[in-house]
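[audit] Reproducing an earlier prediction to check determinism. Same input, same settings, fresh worker. If the tokens differ from the archived copy the diff job will pick it up downstream; this log only records the rerun itself.
[audit] input (470 residues):
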Amino acid sequence: MKLNSLTLKATIDKLKAKEISHADLYKDVHDAIAEKNGLLNIYLSLDPTAVTKAEALLDTPLAGAPIAVKDNFLTVGLETTASANVLKGFKPPAESHVTTKLKAAGGVIVGKTNMDAWAHGSSTETSDFGPTKNPRNPEYLPGGSSGGSAAAIAADLAVGALGTETAGSIRQPASWCGVVGLKPTYGRVSRSGVIAMASSTDSPGPIGKTVEDCAILLTHIAGKDPYDATTLPKPVPDYTAHMRDGVKGMRIGICYMDHPQLKGTDVDRAVTKAGKVFEALGATVEVVPLSKTLEKGKILTPDYAIGVYTVVQRSEVSSNLARFDGIRYGNDRSFFAHEALNRIMLGTFTLSKGYADKYYVRAQQVRTLYRQNFAELFGTYDILLASPSPGYALAAGASSGDPLFGELQDMLVEPSSLVGNTGISVPCFTDPKTNLPLGLNIMGDQWQEEKILKAAYAFEQATDWNPWAK
């Protein structure tokens, strides 16, 4: 067995037991990268000193394990571009808070992964450095914007990865690539040193081969950051400690499967079957009806979230990208690609005098309705089940010419992301014809990462959809 195919947990255990060496581990990782990266276009840059760094970290919690990191985290000594030509050649003078914590725990950044430029998209096709392909079937998209990190795990080109999610950008590529992706509560993980997209929803988080791998990474990257006022001084638990406690007695709601776009599809069948698995494990499972208005015991349609997210995200993009003016960074605004220009223009228009009340304020009011809806539902249910995406990965090129491609593919996760709730995607089905997987989106209330990890681990162990979990 090639060592690059190990899970993060197995890698740490075998390194500490001295059953494997860092030299052999990194050789297998780099051999796999050399073999696959030309086709899949996952890594934008690699750290040639990674194995040397790893060999000094055996006694740390992560033991020098090779971790792939999305290219919007600032990393000293490694180029950080957010997959955009504006930042081509930029080497940051400071390290992001998350990667600082990762390194302190003994993780080694093997390389920086491709993404949608500025995280604008859900396909990894808007990258200025070429699209990433799905390792499960290279004729299809890996999802995005953390498509490179999800693909790195699916292709065994790292044993763990970091991504970011604004609305689906961890869970959707995890679903399309057949890996595990965890979106933490907004403010659970610092945004300091992450190139901002939409500041009110950006959430860094782990992508891994198993639920346990994501729990391990989250334990080491979460926590208060004095440089990020949106993080809270809540204690960080060992997220693996209660992961195996099971779901007996949990109340679980199934959401969105009665939406006209989903009813009767493979997604509907996969999520419904997942509910049966949880029932067999001792949970109480109910269907939460869809509603077009705010009603007790029903879930508000995700359709409204498409418009809300479009307005809020574009508005925050226009503000965040204003700093890339060609003075502090290498290239000026003429290097912005089409997608970034579209979002800047729409966001600036939305925030302009006479239109802010009409669009931005109204979007925030509807966002509040989603917050009220989830607060009421989580008073009844421990977790909610849905899908990260309306379907399988789409064919390469599908995002071209569609300005709302990302919003439509992320419609099922946009409501929970706008509210700041946590969620995790775990594999729940694979199409035998195309080898394309589907993910199960397990959503929890804010600060309920332990609860969703219990459910995700129980499902993973009770099913055969995740080959790394056995």
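[audit] rerun output stored. Observation attached for the diff report: Residues 3-305+360-469 form a domain with the Amidase signature (AS) enzymes fold (CATH 3.90.1300.10).
[audit] end
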